[in-house]
Design a protein that fits this description.
- A hairpin with a 3-residue loop joins β1 and β2 (13-20).
- By secondary structure, this protein is α/β, with parallel strands linked by helices.
- The protein has one domain (2-209): P-loop containing nucleotide triphosphate hydrolases (Rossmann fold).
- α3 runs parallel beside α5.
- It has seven helices and ten strands.
- It is globular and about 50 Å long.
- Strands 6-7-8-3-9-10 form a six-stranded mixed β-sheet, sandwiched between helices.
- It is 35% helix and 26% strand.
- Bound molecules: adenosine-5'-triphosphate.
- Adenosine-5'-triphosphate is lined by residues 12, 30, 32-38.
- Adenosine-5'-triphosphate binds at residues 12, 30, 32-38.
């Protein structure tokens, strides 16, 4: 699905060759500062490499409309983006930016349940905890129904049990719907739980390894 060839981000990342398969749960593991977030940002054109080529479904990302690409390849960033307003407002806003039909209450409530968020849709999102905000921004990405989820440590603010439960539920959902996931995690345990494919990173180099 993604193919990277001789990709370099100066002083941060060098990737000789890497293929990330479609319809799989890929985890990226590596020490802090090894370029994991930088790699993820390359995949939906939030950053561009200084050299090399990145293909998405055999087309060079540099030739694609970034907005179109980001409709198919959605990023859930490390620090959740929460807008003023209710939980419902925060769920609907992604759909409205993408000019898609609003979600119905049932669908939104199911997502809150999936993410173990015991909250009403009309509650103010501002008062949610860090871990709840993280799950809310993840749920917002799910409503967009993208082909590919890029997840930057989506469980970093969650306790171990909640992280495992949410991640397993998310994995079941993406399997059912044949989605592709590329997730950064510092937890080898979580990676072992969900990964079908693992990318191990070290500074200035990368090696892709299929489990
Ligand atoms: N825009 C930028 N300009 C300069 N340096 C940058 C930029 N973005 C990232 N870096 C540097 O590149 C290196 C890799 O950063 P990146 O965030 O990709 O690492 P990471 O593996 O995701 O780290 P962590 O696990 O701590 O989140 C870091 O040393 C960082 O300071």
């Amino acid at each position: 699905m993604f193919e990277l060839k001789d990709v370099q981000v100066d002083g941060i990342l060098h990737i000789d060759e890497l293929t990330i398969p479609a319809n799989q749960f890929t985890c990226i593991i590596g020490p802090s500062g090894s370029g994991k977030s930088t790699l993820l940002r390359l995949l939906n054109d939030l950053s561009s490499p200084n050299q090399g080529e990145i293909l998405f479904k055999n087309i060079s990302i540099s030739t694609l409309d970034p907005l179109q690409l980001r409709r198919s390849v959605v990023m859930v960033s490390q620090s959740p983006v929460i807008f003023d307003g209710s939980i419902e407002d925060n769920l609907q806003i992604g759909l409205s930016f993408s000019e898609k039909e609003p979600a119905c209450a049932k669908e939104m409530k199911e997502l809150l349940e999936l993410f173990l968020l015991d909250k009403r849709l009309d509650e103010d999102a501002e008062h949610l905890s860090g871990g709840e905000k993280q799950r809310l921004s993840w749920a917002r990405a799910m409503l967009l129904d993208p082909e590919v989820f890029l997840l930057d440590e989506p469980t970093s603010a969650l306790d171990e049990e909640t992280a495992k439960t949410v991640l397993m539920r998310f994995r079941d959902y993406v399997r059912r719907k044949s989605k592709s996931v590329i997730m950064i995690t510092h937890s080898k345990e979580l990676a072992e739980l969900v990964a079908e494919n693992t990318i191990y990173m070290s500074p200035y180099s990368i090696g892709g390894k299929a489990d």
